[in-house]
């Protein structure tokens, strides 16, 4: 079953400002490592329900996983909300070193929610949204997640509330009163 993209984005944006401890616990590792990849794994596996997404603390392992390889591309201009984006910030020969999830693509600018940002110390870093030009040379690739999301309208499963007019309510109360008066005690 596909996940509604709008609801998914709304839900993950609530995580802004979170520290990494819950995501590191999810990985089973100590809380003293760069946790952007395990944050992305947590979001895709636990929030979106994509159990085949790699549970990894390594950006390179995620990019090179059997799950991701057929979905990897460099179409930054066509990246959609929910796509995973990888960054190469340091040494191209060692693979991507940062990862996040696209939350908006607007006129050549991609906004990405990322874990392990804002501080060089993983114990003090947090979840934040940053915006990049699609021409930014730090962008490494996109993992196309469109097979898992839908833009179909959200089905309302709640029953509609029927509003009664004041006259209808008076009639109901009149019948209740008549019933109560007719009961012998």
Uncertain stretches of 5 or more adjacent residues: none
Q: Strand count, sense and closure of the main sheet? A: 6 strands, antiparallel
Main structural class: alpha+beta
Physical arrangement of strands within the biggest beta sheet:
2-7-3-4-5-6
Task: Provide mean pLDDT, rounded.
Answer: 88
**Straight-line distance between termini:** 59 Å
Return the string of H and E elements.
EHHHHEEEEEEEH
Shape: elongated
C-alpha Rg (nearest Å) = 24 Å
Strand content: 15-25%
Oligomer: single chain
Helix content: 25-40%
Number of helical regions: 5
Strand element count: 8
Keywords:
185 residues, alpha+beta, 5 helices, elongated
Describe the structure in your own words.
The chain is α+β, with helices and mostly antiparallel strands and 185 residues long. Helices cover 27% and strands 22% of the residues. It contains 5 helices and 8 strands, in the order βααααβββββββα. The strands form 2 sheets. Strands 2-7-3-4-5-6 form a 6-stranded antiparallel sheet. β4 and β5 (109-117) form a beta hairpin. It is elongated, with a radius of gyration of 24 Å. It starts with a strand and ends with a helix.
């Amino acid at each position: 079953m596909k996940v509604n993209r709008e609801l998914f984005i709304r839900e993950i944006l609530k995580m802004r400002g979170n520290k990494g401890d819950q995501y590191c616990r999810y990985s089973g590792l100590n809380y003293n490592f760069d946790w952007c990849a395990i944050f992305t794994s947590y979001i895709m596996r636990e929030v979106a329900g994509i159990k085949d997404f790699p549970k990894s603390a390594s950006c390179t392992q995620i990019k090179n996983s059997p799950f991701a390889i057929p979905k990897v591309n460099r179409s930054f201009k066509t990246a959609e909300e929910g796509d995973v984006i990888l960054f190469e910030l340091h040494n191209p020969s060692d693979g991507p070193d940062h990862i996040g999830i696209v939350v908006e693509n607007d006129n050549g600018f991609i906004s990405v929610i990322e874990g392990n940002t804002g501080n060089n110390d993983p114990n003090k870093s947090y979840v934040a949204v940053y915006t990049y030009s699609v021409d930014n040379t730090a962008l490494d690739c996109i993992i196309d997640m469109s097979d898992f999301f839908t833009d179909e309208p959200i089905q309302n499963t709640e029953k509609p509330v029927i509003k009664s007019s004041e006259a209808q309510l008076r009639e109901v109360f009149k019948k209740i009163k008549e019933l109560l008066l007719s009961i012998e005690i």
